[in-house]
Amino acid sequence: MTDQNEQEFLNNLEKKLWTSANKLLPSLDASQYKHVMLGLVFLKYVSDAFDIRRDELKAQFTNPDNDYFVDPADFDDDAVYQADIASELEGRDYYLETNTFWVPPVARWQFLRDNNKVVIGGAELPVQSKGEIKNIKISSVGHLIDYALDAIEIDNPKLKGVLNKRYTQLQIDQAKLGELIDLISTIPFKHESLSSKDILGHVYEYFLGQFALAEGKKGGQFYTPKAIVSLIVQMLEPYKGRVYDPAMGSGGFFVQSEQFITAHKGKIGDVSIYGQEYNHTTWQLAAMNMAIRGIDFNFGKEPANTYTNDQHPDLRADFVMANPPFNMKEWDTGVDDNDPRWVYGKPPSGNANFAWLQHMLYHLAPNGSLGLLLANGSMSSNTSGEGDIRKALIENDLVECMVALPGQLFTNTQIPACIWFLTKNKNARTAASGRQLINRRNKVLFIDARNLGYMKDRVLRDFTQDDLNKICDVYHAWQTSKEYEDQKGFCSSANLADIQKNDFVLTPGRYVGAEDVADDGEAFADKMARLTAQLKTQFEDSDRLEAEIKKNLKGLGYDI
Prior knowledge:
The protein is built from 17 helices and 15 strands. It is of the alpha/beta class. It folds into three domains: 4-192, N6 adenine-specific DNA methyltransferase, N-terminal domain (Ferritin), CATH 1.20.1260; 218-512, Vaccinia Virus protein VP39 (Rossmann fold, 3-Layer(aba) Sandwich), CATH 3.40.50.150; 524-560. Strands 5-4-3-6-7-9-8-12-15 form a nine-stranded mixed beta sheet. Strands 1-2 form a two-stranded antiparallel sheet. A two-stranded antiparallel sheet has the order 10-11. Strand 13 and strand 14 form a beta hairpin. Residues 218-222 have low confidence and may be disordered.
């Protein structure tokens, strides 16, 4: 998904970031220093983004050909002119019009960098606020950072309760904290082809994974691989309406939706974001992710369990996207057996897969669509009534498309995964994207993508953009009947009768068949004879090697 130059830049950035984190290791455990690092990286990013916009505005104010030009001829004194420019640069609306996060003066990185040595032991600092200079008492470097975060919360009410203002309480050498600020100052959020938002997203993903591993947790629980997020977003095309993720993690689906909308010349203001997350740290991170992008969001009043404390009980979303924990056990403690969400059957206590699926369906609007990443077992399991729930979903014509994914896409699990795409309305209609959908009642598209992708390192697989396009193009062609054809080994459109014959199993391999293999001209009987002889020779070689190894070991005094 990134070219070699970008990947090298990100790898170097990771090394620098981890060096920064390790400066705190002697005195802080992982559960503490993750908050320290994420808070400071957040401050650095919003300040850099603010400075970029500030430089743009300054160039516009001093350019005679620009509408924002401030003519120095209108001022008797250059100092007055410069003061007027400085005042204009503090106009909040200039930043908000480009979705740039507004950063108050005391929270700007330059202020922290200039004063982190000064405040060790306590100091009074002059601060400009609303055109006036006032002195504030700062007792330590930790207090300096907390003061910055508090100022951001005051100016950005959506972040109230989100930022960790605990730096004053840290049992850490203040000089070390000052050094950390200096080191983070060298981290660039500028690159020739990567946007600052993309870099920040990579930074957060990297840190969440590293911190989770340091705490002994599964790093992958915090985020979904970007390629899978991109695939689901490209297939659903959330141009307008309400977008919901009931297991949102750090907000990856929302970020990718924003990028998709922007790339297709849409308006992010046409989309409303709703999410829920149980883990407090990732709930905070998701809120910060939205705030810095200027995306309005509703993540509920607090981090909460989706099953026992639904933060959006009345929501009916146009698009629902999620990657919940695979095969989650004991999820139903405190959940009523007669919960209205279990329309198609009560999910078993030992596995939450069909609980997630039905929760998402419950929150789906009449014309809505959802994409859900689940373990492969969900497509075929008949354990504890799961087969009955799957059958009910199929017979109620809710399943639209099933995608089987290749292995090794996740850092934290080798469990094979698939994507379920469901909708409540398969009738002919106009989608939010403007596509003219045909009548797809009682039909399901099966896509077997297990052979797509490439190994980006020794253990992880990734998709190329061509891979994503191949899957999405087939899906959209099938929805609109534009030159869609079944492709052996890759995709097949099946009807309800086909699925009934397969006992309501939804594994794509059962429907797409095997890819045609080119005829090599060798008769089957001849090929079998040749291969059998070759196998016999290999067995003989194996026996000979085993005897040699035993003989050598015996000579060394080991008898096996």
